[in-house]
Amino acid sequence: MSKQFDVIVIGAGPGGYIAAIRAAQLGMSVACIDAWQNAQGGPAPGGTCTNVGCIPSKALLQSSEHFEQLNHHFAEHGIEAQGATVNVEKMIGRKNGVVKQNNDGILYLFKKNKISFFHGKGEFAGKAEGGYAVKVTGPTSEDLVGKHIVVATGSAPRALPGLPFDEKVVLSNDGALAIGATPKKLGVIGAGVIGLEMGSVWRRLGAEVTVLEALPEFLMAADQQVAKEALKVFTKQGLNIQTGVKITETKATAKGVSLTYTDAKGAEQKLAVDKLIVSIGRVPYTDGLKADTVGLNLDERGFIAVDDECKTNLPNVWAIGDVVRGPMLAHKAEEEGVAVAERIAGQHGHVNFATVPWVIYTSPEIAWVGKTEQQLKAEGREYKAGSFPFLANGRARALGDTTGFAKVIADAKTDEVLGVHIIGPMASELISEAVTIMEFRGAAEDIARICHAHPTLSEAVKEAALAVDKRTLNF
């Protein structure tokens, strides 16, 4: 006999496991199905984010940053060291340990919240009395019935046409996080978040890194002032970043990849690398879901079609995270997971896409929320902007990390904050103040009037808000 649940969540990534926990908190019986497994074949919930995305990449970024600081910056502090080397195998082992801690933490949360976890792939098996039949296949085999189904199956890396991932020479984010030794020459296709972060890791560890980007400008999603600063800094660090590139030929062997491409000027170029990271976006993952069994609609790009509340075309079937429209960000998926659980319970879940922050965990970090200057110009909206360099921030000077600036953009008439853009130390943490202000539709004056502790990096945000009114105090 099938096991019955109020809610079945298919996928235990950031959206799925959070949806399951919130639904359980609201008094529902919940099952969560996930197929990820560790090297031993055991369950590894957390999805791409925990296993081959956000968490392991940050672990490697931290390790490589320590190595970079030791070799190039500690001497400024009077700390002298010679002959430092990096044990890549041990570094990868630490990363794997961090991942496992997060996997185990999610399993603990399932147990704590009395959520039934099933290790395997979840697929629709048809409609059933009381809801929908879902079959679990894999390490666990079960037949379940859920009144509500939440699809949170995430996304998969997009391969370059004619160049499939082998995760040895041609790498997705998965393979890029498991390179056994620093390659002499590393190619990266795509100057987005994954490409820049992974390129930064292996550049710090000694690889000669070339980044090829098809778009005509660098970081076109970011504010142009931030993008220009980032390109200057990353180039100085040693990343060879080329934009406006069109790849015309690829050839992979066991020893490396050779590329032929035209550059921004139309000239033909050739590049040979030991390993190639392909980070040209991600595609929604619905393989094996058997959506057609129940008539679940997908849109023209393969995403599960949903409305503003994450409802699909089927009653009581919901979808969240990377498998639906909107930014492919872990925190966006989490917010949708909470919102859907609350909507199922009859509450009014809320997700505001306008205040979803973006972060690139390079050094310096880049973070932003809201509108860029180029977006506001295109909309014809009148605005005023102010910026403040970390060079003039006392805490940044003490840290020895004064690259970049904070920038606040506000409405020219109402002073409402329309966007905040930061490139510099701990930008990922500083951006939360901006998100909060924007959620309350606060003004630049509100940031400027709030007392910020001294000396802190957050004072740069306050000074940028003061700069909107041309009254900075420390620059």
Provide the CATH superfamily of the largest domain: FAD/NAD(P)-binding domain
Largest sheet: 7 strands, mixed
Work out the radius of gyration: 24 Å
Q: Helical proportion?
A: 25-40%
By CATH reckoning, the class of the largest domain would read Alpha Beta
The whole-number mean of residue pLDDT values reads: 97
Low-pLDDT parts are none
Distance between the termini: 71 Å
Shape: globular
CATH architecture classification of the largest domain: 3-Layer(bba) Sandwich
Structural class: alpha/beta
For the secondary structure, the number of strands is 22
- Beta-strand residue fraction: 25-35%
Number of helices: 13
How many domains, in number, for the residues?
3
CATH fold group of the largest domain: FAD/NAD(P)-binding domain
Considering the chains and any ligands shown, give keywords for the structure.
475 residues; flavoprotein; 3 domains; FAD/NAD(P)-binding domain; Enolase-like, domain 1; Pyr_nucl-diS_OxRdtase_dimer; 13 helices; 31% helix; globular; alpha/beta; 25% strand; seven-stranded mixed beta sheet; Dihydrolipoyl dehydrogenase
Write a concise synopsis of the structure shown.
This protein is of the alpha/beta class.
Describe the SSE topology:
Layout: E1 3-10, H1 14-25, E2 30-34, H2 47-52, H3 54-72, H4 88-112, E3 116-119, E4 121-128, E5 131-137, E6 142-151, E7 155-157, E8 170-171, H5 173-176, E9 185-189, H6 193-204, E10 208-212, H7 224-237, E11 240-242, E12 246-252, E13 257-262, E14 268-273, E15 275-278, E16 282-284, E17 317-319, H8 330-344, E18 358-360, E19 365-370, H9 373-379, E20 383-389, H10 394-399, E21 405-411, E22 417-424, H11 427-439, H12 444-449, H13 459-468
